Amino acid sequence: MKDRGLAWEVTRDTTRRAVLASVLAAGSAGLAASDAADRLDSFAPLSGKAWDAADRSLPETVESPHGAATVARDEFGVPQIEADEEPAAYFAVGYCQAFDRLFAMDLQRRVMRGRLSEVIGEATLGGDEFNVAMGFADAAAATWEVVAETRAGPLVEAFADGVNAAMDDLPLPLEFELIGYEPEPWTPVDSMLMEKQISWTLTGDFAELRRALVADHLGAKRAETLFPTRYDHDDAILDGTETRLGGSAESVRGAGERATTGAPNGSVDPVDPSLTDWLSGFESPTGVGSNSWVVSGEHTASGTPILAYDPHLSLQAPPLWYEQSVDTPERSVRGATFSGVPFVIAGANDRGAWSFTNLGADVLDCYQYDIDDAGDRYRYDGEWRPFEVDEREPIPVAGGEDRELRVRRTVHGPLIEREDQTVGVAWTGHTATRTTVAIEAYGRSEGLDDVLEATRDFDLPTQNLVYADADGRTLYFATGRLPIRRTDGEVVDGDRIFDGSAGEGEWRGFEPFGESSWEGFVPFEEKPHAIDPDVLSTANQRPIDDPTHYIGVDYATPYRGARIAAGLDEAVDGGETDGGNADGPTAPGFHRALQRDVRDGRAPELVPEIVTAVRDRDGLGPSLVDAADALDGWDYRMRRDSRAALLFARYLPHFRERVFGPAFADADLGEGYYPSDWTLARLPDDDPLFDGRSRSALAVRALRDALDEVEAEGWETYGDYNTTRAMSHPLGGEAPFLNYAELPADGSPATVMNYRVESAVGSSWRMVVRPGTDATAVLPGGNSGDYFSEHYDDQLRRWLENDQRPMPLGAGGEPAVRFEPGGSQ
């Protein structure tokens, strides 16, 4: 019988080489998918060197100055690294990451250093100016000064040595030939910069600037109605009575300093709308969040806790996450990390498993200052003083004139300037942070006590840590440093713009671009946490209803959180859930099924009014009636083969526009300022937004808009619209062959199986772990970033079905690479 798998691989390899051959023949013009390739002029003419990238492979032996190690590769290309000495293992980790993901690593460090225009051109200049002004590279350097002196330091250095050895030994990936440059050596500071990049993605938020504009343009009372600082629901992560450190099961509400001072919109005027909108463009994509949950052994078939996790981050080719396994006498750990980060961030070792979802904490504040006419001094603490930093930074620009950016910093942090408008920024990531130390320690932890101790060093990002171990222990802890703001000695919330010159919103113990004491931040024991929770889930909703200290206000709507909690509650009570069999104790299969749940909680709130609005009107025509009938018979699941799911998905943006568009346009606020779907579903018929218009009439018009769009696009089912087209390569617009195949997908922004086709955000890694027993996982694409590798996209279809494959610990099979002692550091 013919080996179909081998035949497919041969065909696939031949096809990819044929694609490269056609592109080489066409030259730079062959890269363009359309005339809209606005960065095409930065692409280098292709040469025969591109064939070197097609033949990249790992050598059988590599000299390592850090000692012997071996690397096996499993059937999905995951490196399984074994060594007797930890530096030898992490040299091999660096070598493997560079082989698989070198372009992604270099791209991210260029972005964060503000040096992308050096190879791309003027199209990326705005981003470079922001990143240089924010000083991420200086914050990374300050972090490395601290980390270098810890146990993690030598391992980070060994990792960097491994990356550089791979650069020296191997042909560069194809993308470097496409753009026409060579990467610089990797440094430990670059790995710290990746920590800053991750942290910024999860906590970089200028929401207070937008809140101030909304309050100014719509009125404070109206703004509070449309943008409540607390959604009205009962699905917080904690109920306030969990067992805490010290064994107490009592709530600690009222024990801390809870802010009550000052109006939410602050004491200063809003920042200019153009600057606010520009800064908002450097925040995370809409929808960044995650799901995680844990059930104790009381509710599992095996008697061992089960942890499930899927972080919702940007989806792209290759994926953000990189899977690796490291086995040494000190640790046996496997899981996911980010390219350029040596240690497993979310995963499992032989004793436990850990995961992180975004806490939604407010760890960034904005300040306005009195600045003198010359722009050389600012007023602070009753006097005029020079800026703490005031210098010119060059920004190289490929194919254009280099730029020079004035970089100024105050006692709080960077001063961002755009078209003569300024705002000061304080962000907890601007100081030296020890998160790398914590992550390294998780990998060799032996139980809950070790994880708790390591978490004390987890300075940023603020996350919901969920943990379980083979001893049956479970844990929830809010990680990261939480500022306590003070104005005139009084504690205030951070949901406002502060008068920096007047000393409002001070963070005691914070040293930007240095080492902070953190003395004025929320004490570790007073952060939200739970010791040995029985059943607990997180989905970016608020952590607790009445926190001891101010945490933040920008939490996710509770649709995912409520759905997960309901599924778990029904399962542990011995019932049957929609997500899979839950007859009695739960097993890993139940949790994977719950991860695949696609019921959209917005639909039961909004669909009945559409159906009623259509049926209450005569003479609307058969297409509207048929659409209402389809929606009426729908089970609210966002499946790719569903016509009703398609209609609902396209109805929502049209209904938002019908409801919010006129009033927000009159207030000079774009669609980026529209309230959430949670708010939309709860607007009463007499809300001023309707201004004499009928809500039901707007629903009918929005449904007609959706039908017109669906017909114009030729969509039949949800999967025609909701595809993987959003999961593109960074160069995919100019070199479309690098993108993943376009396939129909399930899920929506509000479903547990999360997918946002418009913003390319969704489940970026999934895993289910029984600590000390077994684990499964899947990536949205493949572990390799090499277009010619069989592992470039070999998990994409598995990811669409949540068909997870085993994630075993320990050494792999026959080594593919042997690292032998030799060479120099």
Automatic annotation (TrEMBL):
UniProtKB keywords: Hydrolase, Zymogen
Residues spanning the signal sequence: none
Biological process (GO), any one: antibiotic biosynthetic process
Region described as Disordered: 241-270, 804-825
GO terms assigned for molecular function: hydrolase activity, acting on carbon-nitrogen (but not peptide) bonds, in linear amides
Alphabetical list of Pfam families matching this protein: Penicil_amidase
Keyword Cytoplasm in record: no
Family: Belongs to the peptidase S45 family.
Protein name stated in the entry: Peptidase S45 penicillin amidase
Species in which this protein is naturally found: Halorubrum californiense DSM 19288
